[in-house]
Design a protein that fits this description.
The complex is a heterotrimer of chains A (130), B (120) and C (97). Chain A has 130 residues and is an alpha/beta fold. Helix content of chain A is 37%, strand content 19%. Chain A has a single domain, classed as Hypothetical Protein Ychn, Chain: A, CATH 3.40.1260. Chain A contains five helices and five strands; from the N terminus they run E-H-E-H-E-H-H-E-H-E. Chain A has a five-stranded parallel beta sheet, with helices on both faces. Chain A is globular. Chain B has four helices and five strands. In chain B, helix 1 links the parallel strand 1 and strand 2. The radius of gyration of chain B is 14 Å and the shape is globular. Chain C is an alpha/beta fold. Helices cover 32% and strands 22% of the residues of chain C. Chain C has a five-stranded parallel beta sheet with strand order 4-3-2-1-5. In chain C, strand 1, helix 1 and strand 2 form a beta-alpha-beta unit. The longest helix of chain C is centred in the C-terminal third of the chain and has 10 residues. The relative contact order of chain C is 0.25. The chains are: A alpha/beta (130), B alpha/beta (120), C alpha/beta (97).
C-alpha cells in the first residue's frame, strides 16, 4: 500500500515529528511504500541542516535524512511555510537575495500542490501535528 | 487527473495560531487541482468564520476576504457544526460566508465519506 | 473510520469531540493515551464509548507515560506496526489535532 505523511510540527517542542518518524519506519518495515513525506507549518524546521542537539538526544533532522537516503524517500518542504520560517535552499537564496542556505539533503522545497498530489497518489495520508 | 474527496477540518480559533490560515491555503490549492473539496468547522474552528475581524491592532492579516473568495474557487461545501456554534453563543448569521449548518452526527457521516481528511 | 487522538482529554476537547462526532475506531497516541488510564474522571466516558468505538492505545506512548499498569480493560494496545495496520485497514483516517 502507498502511504503519504504530513508533518505539521517542528521537532523537539512537540512529539509529532517523533511519532511521524517512527510511523514512517514502521510503514517501510511492513513492506509498504511511502509516496512522499510533506512538511508544513512549523514542520519545515525538520529540514534545517544546522540543527545541533546535545549528543545524548536524538537528531531529528539526521534521522529523517538517513531514512530518506536508505529508502529513496521524497521529502518535500512547503515553499510558503519555508519562506516564512527561513528555511532556504540554493534557489530560494538567489530568488530572495539571502546570504545563506540551510536546507538539509535530500529535502527539497516545493509548492503545496505536492501535498495535494500526495493525497491523490497515495492510498493513505496520515497527518502528524499539534 | 484522479479526483478524490478532500475534507479540511478546522477546529482551531484564528490568529492565536497560524493553522487556520495555512489550512485555507490547502483548500485553495486542492481546489486548483480540481479535487472535490469540502471544509468543516467545529469546536473553536467556528471562530475562524465569525464576521467582523479587525486585525490591524495585532498586525496579522485577516482572512475574512479569502473566505469570501472560496466561492470563486468553487469551494461551496462548507459545513459548520450546530453544537459548536450554540456552545459559543453564535448563529449562522454571525458568520462571514454562507454555510450549511449540520449536526455533529451529520458532519461525522460526511467525514466517513471522504478519501482524505486533513485537520488543522 | 480511524480517529487518531494525540491530546490529553484533561487538556483539550479532541477526545470529547470524536465521541460526539463519529464512530468506528479510535487510536490514542502521544498525550491522547491519558484517556486510557484507569481511575480518572474520563474513565466512565471512555467505557461508555466502547459500544460505539473500538479503542486502541499506542504502547510506546503508554509506557513512556508510566501508565502501562493502569490501562482500562478493553483498550487494545498496538505498537507502531499495529498503528500502520490500523491506518491500512481503515479507508479514511483523521488526526484530531
Amino acid at each position: 500500500m502507498k502511504f503519504a505523511i504530513l508533518v505539521s510540527e517542528g521537532p523537539y517542542t512537540h512529539q509529532a515529528t517523533d511519532t511521524a518518524f517512527l510511523f514512517a519506519q514502521a510503514v517501510l518495515a511492513k513492506g509498504h511504500e511511502i509516496f512522499r513525506v510533506f512538511f508544513y507549518h512549523d514542520g519545515v524546521y525538520n529540514a534545517t541542516r544546522l540543527t545541533t542537539p546535545p549528543r545524548d538526544d536524538r537528531n531529528v533532522v539526521e534521522r529523517w535524512t538517513k531514512l530518506a537516503e536508505a529508502h529513496c524517500l521524497d521529502m518535500v518542504v512547503c515553499v510558503a511555510a519555508a519562506q516564512r520560517r527561513g528555511i532556504v535552499d540554493e534557489g530560494e537564496m538567489k530568488r530572495n537575495g539571502k546570504d545563506a542556505t540551510n536546507l538539509a539533503e535530500p529535502f527539497r522545497i516545493s509548492g503545496l500542490g505536492q501535498l495535494i498530489e500526495a493525497g491523490i497518489q497515495a492510498d493513505r495520508l496520515v497527518v502528524f501535528g499539534d | 487527473m484522479t479526483t478524490k474527496q478532500f475534507m479540511i477540518v478546522n477546529r482551531k480559533a484564528p490568529y492565536g495560531t497560524i493553522y487556520g490560515w495555512e489550512a485555507l491555503e490547502v483548500v485553495l490549492i486542492a481546489a486548483a487541482f480540481e479535487q472535490d473539496v469540502s471544509m468543516a468547522f467545529l469546536d473553536d474552528g467556528v471562530y475562524q468564520i465569525k464576521k467582523g475581524h479587525q486585525t490591524k491592532g495585532i498586525e496579522i492579516k485577516a482572512f475574512e476576504k479569502t473566505f469570501r473568495a472560496l466561492e470563486d474557487y468553487d469551494v461551496t461545501k462548507i459545513y459548520v457544526d450546530q453544537e459548536s456554534l450554540t456552545e459559543r453563543g453564535l448563529t449562522a448569521d454571525d458568520l462571514t460566508i454562507p454555510v450549511e449548518v449540520l449536526s455533529r452526527a451529520e458532519i461525522g457521516k460526511r467525514m466517513e465519506e471522504q478519501d482524505i481528511v486533513l485537520a488543522f | 473510520m480511524l480517529h487518531i487522538i494525540n491530546k490529553s482529554p484533561y487538556d483539550r476537547p479532541a477526545f470529547d469531540s470524536v465521541l460526539k462526532t463519529g464512530e468506528g475506531t479510535i487510536l490514542l497516541i502521544e498525550d491522547g493515551v491519558y484517556a486510557a488510564a484507569k481511575g480518572g474522571a474520563v474513565e466512565p466516558k471512555l467505557k461508555a464509548a466502547m459500544g460505539k468505538f473500538k479503542i486502541y492505545a499506542l504502547t510506546p506512548d503508554v509506557e513512556a507515560r508510566g501508565i502501562a499498569d493502569r490501562v482500562i480493560d478493553g483498550v487494545m494496545q498496538v505498537d507502531y506496526a499495529g498503528f500502520v495496520d490500523l491506518v491500512a485497514e481503515n479507508k479514511t483516517n483523521q488526526s484530531w489535532l
